[in-house]
Design the sequence.
C-alpha cells in the first residue's frame, strides 16, 4: 500500500502549506490537529502487513495526543488568554508561501537526484563552469 503512504504524506505537506497561508491562530491549530491525525494514520498505513497491538496502540496514542489533546489545550489557552487571534508573518503571506514552495521543490529535487541533501547543496555551490564544445568559441580576433 505504498500509494496510501504517499497520499498521507502529500496531505501532511499540504497541511504545512495551509498553515503558511493562514492568518488565524484557530485555523492554524486545526490544520496542525489534522496533520497530527494524518501522522497517526500513517503509522497504520506504513505497517500495513505487519500491524500488531503495539502498532495500533502507537497510532491511537499519536492520534489522541497530536490530533486531539494538544489542539484542545491550545484552543483552551487561546480562549482563556484573550490574545489577538490574528497572526502576522515576518515576511508576508505571499513570500511565506513562495519560500515554502521553493523549499519543498528543492527537497523533492534532492530526493529525486538520489543524493543526500548536503551533497546536492555542495555541488550547487561548487559548480564548475562548462567548457565550450568548440575550441574557437569565445576567442576574440586580434
Sequence:
Amino acid at each position: 500500500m505504498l500509494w496510501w503512504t504517499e497520499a498521507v504524506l502529500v496531505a501532511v505537506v499540504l497541511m504545512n502549506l495551509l498553515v503558511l497561508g493562514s492568518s488565524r491562530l484557530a485555523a492554524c491549530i486545526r490544520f496542525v490537529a489534522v496533520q497530527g491525525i494524518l501522522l497517526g494514520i500513517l503509522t497504520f498505513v506504513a505497517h500495513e502487513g505487519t500491524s500488531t497491538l503495539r502498532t495500533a496502540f502507537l497510532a491511537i496514542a499519536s492520534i489522541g495526543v497530536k490530533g486531539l489533546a494538544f489542539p484542545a489545550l491550545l484552543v483552551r489557552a487561546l480562549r482563556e488568554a484573550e490574545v489577538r487571534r490574528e497572526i502576522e508573518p515576518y515576511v508576508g503571506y505571499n513570500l511565506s508561501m513562495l519560500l515554502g514552495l521553493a523549499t519543498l521543490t528543492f527537497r523533492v529535487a534532492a530526493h529525486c537526484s538520489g543524493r543526500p541533501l548536503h551533497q546536492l547543496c555542495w555541488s550547487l555551490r561548487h559548480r564548475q563552469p562548462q567548457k565550450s564544445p568548440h575550441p574557437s568559441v569565445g576567442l576574440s580576433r586580434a
